[in-house]
Amino acid sequence: MPIISPNAHFLYPNWPAPDNVHAVNTTRYGGMSTTPFDSMNLGTHVGDNINTVEKNRKILSEALELKDSPFWLNQIHSDKVSNLDDKRPLIDADAAFTRQIRRTCVVMTADCLPVLFCNTAGSVVAASHAGWRGLHAGILEKTAIAMQCKPNDLMAWLGPAIGVNAFEVGDEVRQAFVNYDPIAKHAFKSSSHNKYLADIYLLARQRLSAFGIQKIYGGGECTYTDKARFYSYRREAKTGRMASLIWID
Fold this sequence. Notes:
This protein has helices spanning 50-63, 132-137, 139-147, 171-180, 200-211, and strands at residues 3-4, 10-12, 21-26, 81-83, 95-98, 105-109, 113-119, 125-130, 154-158, 168-170, 188-192, 195-198, 215-218, 242-248.
């Protein structure tokens, strides 16, 4: 489980990351947006006032004492990974990694699963946005590959996402995962005719473990049921976005 910050605005991963690696997950607290985006909406694409979102992003950067602004991706539910060390990093992507000091990787979510990565040496970090489409397409594995580390030198933290009792999907989603790896059947529970409850945390752990990453932390939150702390697209289609950030200091 994450550690809640004293001001309750942030969640900090409870994982054995090196001291020079910093990571945080925002909640819906602490910003200036009004209903239905109240209050720390960080997404510019959801219908909130753009100026207010920019103020929220400034509040975030100042609170975390970030030297440079985070690199905000245009997330498209893909398997594309942006290298923030490039002169022109890929913008249309669902993951980012860097070896640069104080360059911040960030992904936004509101039910999808955010996954933060670092290596045991603290020399490379990454953030991934894993909706079921990206997860199935291999966004987590491709993020790990881009980091160019041995799997047993990597660790991953699973941030707040929709819980198993709220994430109902069609049989086509279940079949897609099972066709890729039969072990995925354990992440689905029948709920109604051709409908299943999917455990996105378990699906992520299965994919990470199959890749060789054994140091996996986090999981267990539910953005759908915890309305007080989290945004949820499935609960309220018009809503804000939280951010998961990681950087090297």
